[in-house]
Design a protein that fits this description.
The strands form three sheets. Strands 5, 6, 7, 13, 14, 15, 16, 17 and 18 form a nine-stranded mixed sheet that branches. By secondary structure, this protein is an alpha+beta fold. The protein contains ten helices and 20 strands. It is 32% helix and 27% strand. The protein folds into two domains: 147 residues, FAD/NAD(P)-binding domain; 186 residues, 2-Layer Sandwich (D-Amino Acid Oxidase, Chain A, domain 2). It is an enzyme of class 1 (oxidoreductase). Keywords: FAD, Flavoprotein, Oxidoreductase. GO terms for molecular function: (S)-2-hydroxyglutarate dehydrogenase activity. Its cofactor is FAD. Pfam families: DAO (PF01266).
Length: 402
């Protein structure tokens, strides 16, 4: 990509215009005014993938291991996100949520969540069946906890605001096809349109494609993104649910199970289940990209997941292929729901980092290379935690710029 004297187009190139990439740009321009930041997004606008295809929950941080990045950034990020939305007129509400046990076998896990919530500094109230009905008359359970700091917002609108307010140059339709990094010089990228941009540091916030971008820079991330599609329905009778209702999650998986979420638009999302996607952006079973699928299958960790968790996966697959099976799962929490109450809605894809041995990366994962910072695992609750994540990445970038 050319030699000789370097003329930098910017100080920092950020790859990815989702909420994390835009938060990084926002944090950089505030921490170091005058820093020239360019965000490159392959789509025609921001937040087209994980950011804009989730249930809009502002997570409290109750699920995450005390001291982990997820716990620290979600707990602080939830309050910060509410404040951000209020200051900028973005639709949001602090609703609280119920985590409901429907079987006695779930009670030890529910009690563990109470303890974890307290360790993370989150106010938690324990409820019996009658108290569950006070919050959610149509929900049934034998015990529950109420988490008061959970909320909802429009993350797409948050990303739009960040794109305009960050002070960065945001370029859309700018898919990266080549990266050239040279010691002492910086990083140059070429887009599919043939544009070449040079920066001193590259920040990889490419979400579903972050492992590919890392390898394009010459860094081996020691993980691969294995995409899992989350399939949602909307509730035709939204009056059945007042707020947010979750099952007790299985700690062996990063997925929270089929839950009920009233959004800022008043509609109720039901889901998601989690099935392997056949493409990085495989929002439907019909979307198959053989090269991407082959790369997933070539990663040893994919086969390790299948061996360890095939029973869990079979249940998720059954619920994907059978609406009746999905309805059965919902009825555990909401007995009055019928199959015809569930109307198909847009799916999302979770960019789940998986190690070579099949370990599902549980925490946010940020790695540094020469003149590069890679955000390699930032699925939910990354939207909730996006402002703290942005500051953490910006801190590392500014240390590199020195």
């Amino acid at each position: 990509m050319g030699r000789g004297a370097v003329a930098y187009d910017c100080d920092v190139l950020v790859v990815g215009g989702g909420i994390v990439g835009l938060s990084v740009a926002h944090a950089l321009t505030r921490a170091a005014p005058g820093t020239r930041v360019t965000v490159l997004e392959k789509e025609a606008g921001p937040a087209r993938h994980q950011t804009g295809r989730n249930s809009g929950v502002i997570h409290s941080g109750i699920y995450y291991r005390p001291g982990s990045l997820k716990a620290r950034f979600a707990v602080g990020g939830a309050a910060e996100m509410v404040k951000f939305c209020a200051e900028h007129g973005i639709a949001h509400e602090v609703t609280g949520k119920l985590i409901v046990a429907t079987d006695r076998a779930e009670l030890p896990r529910l009690h563990s969540l109470v303890q974890r919530g307290r360790e993370n500094g989150i106010p938690v109230r324990e409820l019996g069946p009658a108290q569950i009905a006070e919050y959610e008359p149509d929900v049934r359970g034998i015990a529950a906890i109420h988490v008061g700091t959970t909320g909802i917002c429009d993350y797409g609108a948050v990303a739009e605001h960040l794109a305009h307010a960050s002070g960065a140059e945001v370029r859309y339709d700018a898919e990266i096809v080549r990266i050239d990094r040279r010691p002492g010089i910086g990083v140059a990228v070429r887009t599919a349109r043939g544009d070449v941009l040079r920066g001193k540091v590259l920040v990889n916030c490419a979400g579903l494609h972050c492992d590919r971008i890392a390898r394009m820079t010459g860094d081996e991330p020691d993980m691969r993104i294995v995409p899992f599609r989350g399939e949602y329905f909307t509730l035709a009778r939204p009056e059945l649910v007042r707020g947010l209702v979750y099952p007790v999650p299985d700690p062996a998986f990063p997925f929270l199970g089929v839950h009920l979420t009233r959004g800022v638009d008043g509609g109720v999302h039901v889901g998601p289940n989690a099935v392997p996607a056949l493409a990085r952006e495989g929002y439907d079973w019909s979307v198959v990209r053989p090269r991407e699928l082959a790369a997933t299958l070539a990663w040893p960790g994919s086969w390790q997941i299948a061996r360890r968790h095939w029973r869990y996966g079979a249940g998720e697959l059954r619920r994907s292929l059978s609406k009746e099976a999905f309805t059965e799962a919902v009825r555990r929490l909401l007995p009055g729901v019928r199959a015809d109450d569930l109307v198909p809605a847009a799916a999302g894809v979770r960019a789940q980092a998986v190690l070579r041995d099949g370990t599902l990366v549980d925490d946010f994962l940020i790695k540094e290379g020469a003149r590069a910072v890679h955000v390699l695992n930032a699925p939910s609750p990354a939207a909730t935690a996006s402002l703290p994540i942005g500051r953490e990445v910006a801190r590392r970038v500014l240390a590199t710029l020195g």
